[in-house]
Amino acid sequence: MAPEKEVIGQKTLPGNSSDDVDIALEEVALNEVMARVSINLRHSQRSPRGRLRKFLVSVKFQTIIMLTILVDISAFVVETVLDERGEMTNEAHWNLAGIEIGTLVVYTLDIILRVVAFGPRNFVQDRWNIVDLFVVLTAVVVIQTPGGSPGGLVVAVKVLRFLKSARLLKIVGVMIRFFRCFHRFRTGSLAAKHTVSKNKLRYVDLNHNFDLDLTYITPDLIAMALPVKDTWQGFYRNPLNEVVRFFKVKHNGHFRVYNACPECPYPDEKFEEIGGSVVHFNVQDHTPPNMEQFLEFLVDVRKFYVGDKRQTIAVHCKAGKGRTGSLCCAWMMYSKVASSSEGAMELFAQQRTDSSKGKICGVETPSQVRYIRQLWSHLSANDAWLHRGATIPSCPEPEIALHCLKLEAGLLPFAHKMKRLKALVQCGGENVSRLALETTSVEATVTSISLEGVRVRGDVRVAVFEELTPDFSAQNAITCVPNANKAKGIILFFLFHTHFINLSGQENGNEDLAVPHEYLDPEAQENGYNCFRLSVRDLDKAHKRIKKGKHPPGSSIALYWTGDESATESVFHTATNIEVE
């Protein structure tokens, strides 16, 4: 009998001699596992109790409870003031007692719903729930209608009045209401976290009291939002201590966190204390990792998985979607969990999305999508997959010259109302930030901007800015902000790698991305230029403003360039044998 074959981070079925067959079977098995996990998790959240839990942590319900607490506190203050002044009337007593009984009904209903939704066992695991229950039960006993007689309510009100006349009980009343505010702050924090998560699937574990913006994409690949140490941010984001507790309970000593959020640092020591490690990638918000970072990530994960199948990796940026999704898709492509770049992005979106909230949540930023496709092309061209066991070759960086940027089909419909425009070209450096060219300003009504034949290689960013002031610097505007979309004056931008500038949609299995033959620019051909054309849907920032009417749906941008086509035109051209160690 053939021995079982070991594959890094995976298992193959015994008796198969073909690597391709093994990997195909692994993909089927893993997809079945993930389908079951996904179905079970979503089923638990769609069950009546699951829907009730979502309602209890919703902003709407928490607002109702907070308003109830405010009414309760207001009534208590009014009652105290009237008692101190000796101005309490029978009518006021009745009204205030009615308010107190009404608020108590709401508190009692809240506790009953929580017990039903989370289960008695999980309810009592939180000591604050026990205190809350004790407070409500005490109040119920105090105002319990005696004997069920018609005059019982009158007796209850009189008893309530007598007890509240004691100074000690007034102090207790203040403490009770203070506790309710504090306890509701905690549950309100959970509501805020669910709101900030939007349609991302959260990890909910009632047995261990986890409710985190965190999702298992595969059994050993986690996507999550930023863990924060700051108390205020912890109100609506993943608290660092809770994330650390999650890894201690679930993956103690067998995990690595990949931090792609340089703008929000936190202490790595928290994870290291429980046997984990943290690897940092400096990636600007709303941009992709560069090609070198992609390859470094794959090599590091591969080394981490060697020899121990218990290892798990977690990737996060700020929201746990764009930069996180780019790196997660990279690993799923390399490990053959997905059979294409489109398949990887689809799988990530399906796993990361809470389908009960509608819109699919995946990698949406055009340049991030472009770089995922570039990476797939690089891996395919070199047959560089995890199961092959070979090192990953570095990506060639052919030098090209950029000549002109054309704004096509009315890309800027309100150009006559805009200030002058500047084009910015950056190449290489940290976050593709090294200045290659910043053009002089031109009228916004022009249809082309000269790029002066600037020579670039490797990772390139091209951006168009509105010149806000006479001394405006586009380079300073985009390098001084953590989020490229929020750079002052920026209208649109896109990133690409010069080795893949001829990568078409058809070559990548997506015919919708291919430029129609009749739309190829004859002017570019006559002048010996190559044309890299992108629809407005494929331009960062601009793609979000189509629905707002800022850019027409059929508009586009064209980049005219020249260079060594033999090094760029074919995605099937084998890269050099320089290996990334």
Automatic annotation (TrEMBL):
GO terms for cellular component: cytosol; membrane. It is found in: Membrane. The chain crosses the membrane at residues 55-77, 97-116, 128-147. Residues 292-352 form the Tyrosine specific protein phosphatases domain. It is a multi-pass membrane protein. Residues 203-382 form the Phosphatase tensin-type domain. GO terms for molecular function: monoatomic ion channel activity; phosphatidylinositol-3,4,5-trisphosphate 3-phosphatase activity. The keyword NADP does not apply. Keywords: Hydrolase, Membrane, Transmembrane, Transmembrane helix. This is Phosphatidylinositol-3,4,5-trisphosphate 3-phosphatase. It comes from Noctiluca scintillans.
